[in-house]
């Protein structure tokens, strides 16, 4: 009985903003006992509905309601309840006297155990949610280019690697790849970026195993033949794969990767020129889809973290075997 | 004067270059030599308070007069296209610095570029 009484109070309280109902409820206020006891009076339909509806919320509300509705339903309360307005969890049978109850509830529902539990739960939830939020953000980036109607970066190509062997986009499948566009006669940015690429590759391999292919595609096929690339890239990292090809093939690969470059189509032997080109690293997933572009503003450490996090998110198969094995 | 696409750098000594003035091989050692010569030349320009050594006639003349030998050394150790690139880059970098200083003096803020903007439309 007492909880229902509280609930009536709770119901009255919750509905305060609605003036029409309030008038009706004010009328009920006079005879709370009778409305609860007898169910055939005209007013009872609405009352019992309210009681049923607010039953759950009342359990949570008892603390507020307890003090305010004493005048209203005081006559229904047992003396025990008057002294413990906060109680809603202790089994009543265990506490026999008021003193016991007082001792039990000294300080309200807050004690050390509750505080520790609260902090642990909050901390755990926070850590989990932060992790999930970051993971979802990465997934969103990774999924942005999956599916139909999405802008596509990357695509089929047919080139020659630094050993003179054919290398196509199919050779990228099964591993993540980090694709960079550059040229060996690049004054300052590309060498810095390739040094960074070597660092990134080492860090990612250390964390995730050999699942990343570092690839440098030249934008200057006239000068960068396989032999030049091999000698050039050897100084940065022996694992970096240099790709070159005919001018048309390079133009095609630059187009599918949305890379701007400005090599003159026909150059004389020995001619001295620079190639203007986009300077992003393109991270491609094991299915050959674009994941993320990494710009110059990333340090090797930051970039390695971005890449490793994406690799750890990957749920599909990954080839751990060496490509050359 | 030497910044036609090719033709001015058949000098003795320095790194090996093609007839067009490009590096035979832009290896790490060659790059290091080039950077060293560049830094020496720019230091000389700094001492003589010259910013531009490539874009204007007056700039070229001033740098030749003040830092002629360093300039020659620079040309000798770098591909010609690199020399031109670095000289222009010096001016651009200076202007960039000045712009940033001016914006900051006016109370503005230079936001670091967080996410790279990709050209996602087909060319």
Automatic annotation (TrEMBL), chain A:
Disulfide bonds: 186-190
Gene Ontology molecular functions: copper ion binding
GO BP annotation list: cell redox homeostasis; mitochondrial respiratory chain complex IV assembly
Keyword set, alphabetical order: Copper, Disulfide bond, Membrane, Metal-binding, Transmembrane, Transmembrane helix
Stretches that traverse the bilayer: 110-131
One Gene Ontology cellular component: mitochondrion
Pfam (any one): SCO1-SenC
Residues annotated as binding Cu cation: 186, 190, 277
Family listed: Belongs to the SCO1/2 family.
PANTHER family listed in its UniProt record: AT19154P (PTHR12151:SF5), ELECTRON TRANSPORT PROTIN SCO1/SENC FAMILY MEMBER (PTHR12151)
Listed name of the protein: SCO1 protein
Species the sequence originates in: Melanomma pulvis-pyrius CBS 109.77
Phylogenetic classification of the source organism: Eukaryota, Fungi, Dikarya, Ascomycota, Pezizomycotina
TrEMBL record, chain B:
Positions of the UniProt region annotated as Disordered: 1-28
Localization per record: Cytoplasm; Mitochondrion intermembrane space; Nucleus
Signal peptide as annotated in the record: none
Taxonomy, superkingdom: Eukaryota
Keyword match Mitochondrion: yes
GO cellular-component term (any): nucleus
Pfam family, one: COX6B
Family the UniProt entry places it in: Belongs to the cytochrome c oxidase subunit 6B family.
The protein's name in its UniProt record: Uncharacterized protein
